[in-house]
Amino acid sequence: MEKKSSLQNGDYVVIKALDDGVNVIGLTRGIDTRFHHSEKLDKGEVMIAQFTEHTSAIKIRGRAKIMTSNGEIESGK
Ligand code: TRP
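Above: inputs. Below: predicted complex with tryptophan.
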């Protein structure tokens, strides 16, 4: 069976864009924290993402509904 990082524990972050042009930005894990991926979502589009060995933080620019195991929050208001 494929060995999974302990970070990929089945916890997903669900991001639903409430406007066009929402950016979901992945930031690197480790000594330097930099952008490694940017995904653009249009209104109604959903991204489901995990924290991984490469991704330590997720930054969201624009209006979106963000659902996590810690609760729900809306960005961009
Ligand atoms: N290649 C990235 C990774 O494995 C893909 C990714 C996972 C990602 N979670 C993300 C990109 C969150 C942006 C935001 O870490």
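Residues 6-75 form a domain with the Immunoglobulin-like fold (CATH 2.60.40.50).
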